[in-house]
């Protein structure tokens, strides 16, 4: 049985600590009840749950893009607002590629470095390295519209990696892509995560993607948003497509399916 109690998780080196952080938006929507969650360095944690359960809200609070209404968030033991002093970095990859349509792939990927004032020569070298990581070095001078949706998403990921982050926050990055492309990017992401020893917090609606990628899955319920269950996916890495046709994979998927159903039922009960 791999269902675990939140208290049972005592990560040795926390990358992210969410300490009773809750969120009520100015219009009164209670998006999140207090969340307590600790994510260790090197974990691949996926947030799963019905629409409106606060996955994006939680991720934005970790990123420092949103203030919690109460509670605290620490990244590498520091408040997010003090991260600019840190030697470690985080970056955020959104659901859509959000590229500048008039600028080349290279310029799009260089943007975070330009904003940080990194000298041009160094920036160009890092852009090339980042494009190579996602297999797009040949497309550096192309405009986004010349690329497929999957390739545009890879540009967006390259832009997320160009600052050499230690923590990658990804909000449904592959949601809009076809199944084959999505699986290819999932596999590439896992490879990167291992190679670069990243910590990843990932949001998806896909149970299969969650099982394939994650070392831990955090299930959330909506109205109000909260964490309801957590699952450790105790399968060794590297994971290949073969993992997806094993009985273990099917068991994990079933557990998550049942949990998601429970989470959705809670919501219906709350609405009555
Ligand atoms: N800026 C905002 N102002 C007011 N309410 C908001 C705002 N952003 C989100 N909400 C509400 O907060 C709750 C959580 O939203 P959030 O976008 O975090 O959920 P989610 O789990 O990411 O959903 P989805 O799976 O659809 O992306 C929802 O009820 C949503 O309507
Ligand atoms: Mg969302």
What is the structure about, briefly put?
The protein is 35% helix and 24% strand.
Count the beta strands: 11
Which blocks of ≥5 consecutive residues have pLDDT under 50?
none
Strand order, main sheet: write it out: 1-11-10-4-9-8-7
The CATH top-level class label: Alpha Beta
Structural class: alpha/beta
Q: What characterizes the major β-sheet? A: 7 strands, mixed
Order of helices and strands: EEEEHEEEHHHEHEHEEH
Helical fraction: 25-40%
- The dominant shape is globular
| Domains, number | 1
Global mean pLDDT: 91
CATH architecture: 3-Layer(aba) Sandwich
Can you tell me the CATH topology?
A: Rossmann fold
Computed Rg: 19 Å
Strand content: 15-25%
CATH superfamily label = P-loop containing nucleotide triphosphate hydrolases
Which molecules other than protein and nucleic acid are bound?
adenosine-5'-triphosphate, magnesium ion
Number of helices: 7
Terminus-to-terminus distance = 32 Å
Can you walk through the features of this model?
With 272 residues, this protein is of the alpha/beta class. The protein has a single domain, classed as Rossmann fold (3-Layer(aba) Sandwich), CATH 3.40.50.300. Helix content is 35%, strand content 24%. The chain is built from seven helices and eleven strands. Strands 1-11-10-4-9-8-7 form a seven-stranded mixed sheet, with helices on both faces. The chain has a four-stranded antiparallel sheet with strand order 3-2-5-6, with helices on one face. Helix 6 (207-213) packs across helix 7 (247-271). The model has no long low-confidence stretch (mean pLDDT 91). Adenosine-5'-triphosphate binds next to helix 1.
């Amino acid at each position: 049985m791999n269902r675990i109690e939140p208290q049972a998780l005592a990560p040795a080196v926390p990358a992210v600590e969410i300490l009773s952080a809750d969120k009520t938006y100015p219009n009164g929507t209670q998006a999140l009840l207090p969340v307590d969650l600790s994510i260790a360095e090197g974990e691949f944690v996926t947030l799963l749950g019905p629409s409106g359960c606060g996955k994006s809200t939680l991720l934005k609070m970790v990123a420092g893009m949103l203030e919690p209404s109460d509670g605290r968030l620490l990244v590498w033991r520091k408040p997010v607002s003090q991260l600019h002093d840190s030697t470690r970095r985080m970056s955020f990859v959104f659901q859509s590629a959000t590229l500048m349509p008039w600028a080349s792939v290279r310029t799009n990927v260089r943007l975070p470095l330009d904003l940080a004032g990194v000298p041009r020569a160094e920036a160009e070298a890092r852009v090339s390295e980042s494009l190579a990581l996602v297999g797009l070095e040949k497309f550096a001078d192309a405009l986004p519209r010349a690329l497929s949706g999957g390739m545009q998403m890879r540009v967006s990921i390259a832009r997320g990696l160009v600052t050499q982050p230690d923590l990658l926050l990804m909000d449904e990055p592959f949601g809009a892509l076809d199944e084959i492309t999505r699986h290819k990017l999932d596999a590439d992401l896992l490879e990167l995560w291992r190679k670069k020893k990243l910590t990843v917090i990932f949001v998806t609606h896909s149970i299969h993607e969650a099982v394939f990628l994650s070392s831990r899955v955090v299930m959330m319920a909506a109205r109000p948003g909260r964490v309801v269950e957590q699952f450790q996916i105790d399968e060794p890495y590297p994971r290949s497509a073969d993992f997806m046709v094993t009985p273990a994979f099917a068991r994990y998927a079933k557990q998550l399916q049942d949990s998601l159903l429970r989470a959705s039922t809670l919501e219906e009960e709350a609405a009555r």
